Amino acid sequence: MRNSGTQFVRVALVASAVMFAAGAAHATTYKWITFKPQGAGDAQARSTQWYVDEFAKRTGGKDTIEVYWGGSVAKTGEIPETLGAGLGDFGDIVTPYFPDKFPLNNAVGFFIPQPRSPIEIADLMTEWHKKYPQFEKELADANLKAVGYRPLENYGMLCTKPIKSLADLKGLRIRSYGFAYPALFEALGTSPVSINTAETYEALSRNIVDCTPIGPALARGWKYDEVAKYYIEFPLGASFGHLIAMNLDSYNNMDEATRKVVDGLNHDYAVTYSKMLDEDNEKTRAEWKGMGVTVMPFDQNALADAVKSDKVQAVREQWISRAKALGVPTDEIVKELQP
Fold this sequence. Notes:
D-Maltodextrin-Binding Protein, domain 2, two-stranded parallel ribbon, 14 helices
């Protein structure tokens, strides 16, 4: 009996080892390429790590993601092409940097100021991808698939001088980018200056620009608040920032269970990221009290006339025309993006 029992145990152990080996053979480590430095500590970096940890947890450890931080595989402007070519499986794409490549997925950026909150924008993007196939096709043409959305926080204006009213803005030089911001700032009687994020610190410190649109958390993260000490509660609202994208082939080649994990992470990621943004915002405002940064109130209805200007409306019509040319019915989308 003991010999029979021993033989049974050995058979069982061999069978278990074979099953484990078979499971291990199907385990996959995916590569996430990002421009964010690992130690950044902001909501963008922390939420990336949250996604990675949650992915491993929800796949039971069968599949994992390794993050290649700090542009070690691709710089910010290279990520769409690099990810589409299969040199990564996941990546964060700053869509406002590619308005011609991804016009549909930049819809929000054409409608500034924006009344929607970051989580509302993430949910709208999810809805549009489900409802209008053109949004997904635009990415699929670059061999990409959106699996998450990372809107920017509510923006105000960080300035080197106090701004109490629209009259105080006249003639100032405002850092700008994209389409909507330059048109809005021109309508307000300011001079928009195109400067990228990395160069804005020096531009503020050398008085090349007087203000930059930004939120508290990003202002602290980029240390702009070291050289500009007035944060104006200017009602620019949230905007769209980054797509969490996958290489389309990598997504399609996942087994069904893993794809369900990725699909399920979409909304959960948006909620988690939004909470992290709120935490960063509160933390920054608390730190500002000891840094000499003055937070100034501003009329939240002050931009109504500027929005009606020909310049701002022309930018919005530009997006509407491009979307219609791609077969997208725009009335409902435009309604969602306006007060």
